[in-house]
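Weekly modeling sync, notes
Attendees: S.R. (lead), two postdocs, one rotation student

Agenda item 3: backlog of single-chain predictions. S.R. asked that every request posted to the team notebook include the full sequence so nobody has to chase files. The rotation student volunteered to paste the first one in as an example of the format we agreed on. Action items at the bottom.

Example entry:
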Amino acid sequence: MAINAPIDESPEEVRALLAPLRHDFSVAVYSCENAFAVGAIIRVAHSFLAREIIVIGNAPYYEKASMGMQKYESIVKLADETAFFAHVGERPVWAFEKERARQAVYDVDQFPKGVVLLFGSERFGLPVTVLDRVDHVIAIPMYGINNSFPVAIAAGIAMNEWARRKHRA
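Predicted structure, as returned to the notebook:
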C-alpha cells in the first residue's frame, strides 16, 4: 500500500519515514547501457520499497524515468563486478538470465532473506564471470519470437514475484 508522505518534507526526511518500511531485498543492474531503463527500475524499486538499488558500471541513469523517486532511494554505484560482490558480501545473489536459468521465477517457493535480484543489459545479458559467482540463475518464462523482456519489465516482474510470495496468506 502506498503511503502519502508530506510533500513539504525533504528527501532525507521522507527516506527516514520509509526506512522502517523497506523490504529485505535489493535490485542490481549490471552494465545496462540503457539510461531510461535504469531510471524506470529505480521508480519500480521505490514502489516495492527495495532496500537499495545497485548500479554496476559507469552508465548513467535518466532521472526523468525515475519520476523523482531517486531522491528517496539508496542508489549505490559500483565500478565493476568485483566491487559488486564485495558490496553484497554474503547476501544471496539471484541473477535473471534466461539462457543459463536453472529454474523459472514462477516455480520459486521462497526468495531468500536479503536476496539481491541481479539483471544485465538488454543487449548482452550478464557475463559468464558474473553468472559463475551467483547463487541462483532464474528465468522469466516468455512466449513468442522475442528472446528477452526489456530489463525494466523483467525487474518489475521479479520484484512483483518477490512481493507476491512475501504477502500471500
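Discussion: group reviewed the output briefly. Residues 57 and 80 are 5 Å apart (CA to CA).
Action items: rotation student to repeat for the remaining queue; S.R. to check formatting next week.
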